[in-house]
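Homework help board

Subject: predicted structure for assignment chain

Our instructor gave us this sequence and asked us to write out the predicted structure in token form, then describe one feature. I got the tokens but I'm not sure how to describe them. Can anyone check?
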Amino acid sequence: MNGTSELSSARFFDPEPVQRRLAQQLYDSVANLPIVSPHGHVDPNLFADETARFGSPAELLIIPDHYVFRMLYSQGIPLESLGVPRLDGGPVEQDQRKIWQIFADHFYLFRGTPTGVWLAHELSIVFDCQLPLNSATAQEIYTHLENCLAAPEFQPRRLFERFNIEVLCTTDAAWDRLEAHQTIRASGWQGNIRPTFRPDGVVNLDAPGWKANLDKLNQASGIEISSLARLIEALEIQRAHFKSMGATATDHAAVVPLTQMLSPMEAEAIFQRALLGELSGEDIQRFSGHMLMEMARMSVEDGLVMQIHAGSLRNHNSIIFERFGLDKGADIPIATQFSRNLQPLLERFGNDPRLRLILFTLDETTYARELAPLAGHYPAVLLGPPWWFHDSLNGMRRYFDQVIETAGLYNTAGFNDDTRAFPSIPARHDVWRRASANWLAGQVLQGIIQEADAAEMIVDLAAGLARRAYRLPSK
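My token output:
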């Protein structure tokens, strides 16, 4: 598609000529390395059927992507007009071209944002669209994308291969039977898609639909969960099932990363109150803290890497939550405390080399104060990359500057894209590789590291750290 909107080959590098040249050299050395995506939320069903399609451009790039529609909503655009489904089945816009036109009319809102960077990469490199997206070009670009998505080379499996993805890990509920993963494996296709065990829906007692989730875990595990001991047994059965399907990690979300070991009697009493619907707020927090301890104990025993994502106050906008449900762009970061909250877990398991605990935060003030010192001491702890709101060029700069001096590079977990938006995966990894190259170039020019060191470090930042952190085999 002919046009004039081209991406600079030196984008995101420092304008100082010497640093820019060295950053370009370092980036070029890893630009074509395979993508290691050890944590994300892409639907494995995309790959279960070799004939699967992404749907329309709006269904791919707008309707499911909270990064996109949260910005539009912030400017007064109703989610209904963007085709976002309502929980009550109420009317929403069905005309895909109208949805796209609204998006294009407001594409300028994404200037200077990570989402704008990712979308520019997707349009230009993935879809070979060189026209700038705006009101005037909207329909021409829509037609171009529609034609691309109808072509065999844009089927999910073909894009997986084109993106040079070495491994893609999904995130799956504890009760998932992993049928999609089984279908992928049985098909003979060589794409490496692995599940990740996510138990939040049954161990966080305030999770939406907790009792229904417990019933699903009953069915998946074959365990009638009438006590905490039976819940733990069911979770261990499912973890083993996930591991047999290639899982190497678990994932846990916590508003506050509190950990504490309750007595068996206390923990059981809270669980029984949950079954009766008689919980207090204190019960919920204490039980979640207890179950994080149990999850760490299980990880020591079965070797699954444990991730904790902390500091997001979910569903802040109750009107949007009640009308549209989860993951609709209303999750807001809050201040987080790690050192005291994690001390019970680390006292018990942090010195055990069998545990691998990767910590993520939305509270950047904890980087230098808490997380880097924790990772720089405990053998079990690694720091995850800049997450969510900080998965950006400036977020990566701040991370490197605040973390590496104390923790060291090799106590970090490399990069993961943590995305539902499959076509954005190459863009996100490209930003990380460019940011890493630019930071390393600055370190060399300041005399902090040698150029030979930087050449090794950029390879680890691009893929090696993530492979090792998540215990993933390399090709």
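Reply (TA_rk): Your tokens look well-formed. For the description, you could write something like this. Residues 53-154 form a domain with the uronate isomerase, domain 2, chain A fold (CATH 1.10.2020.10). That's the kind of observation they're looking for.
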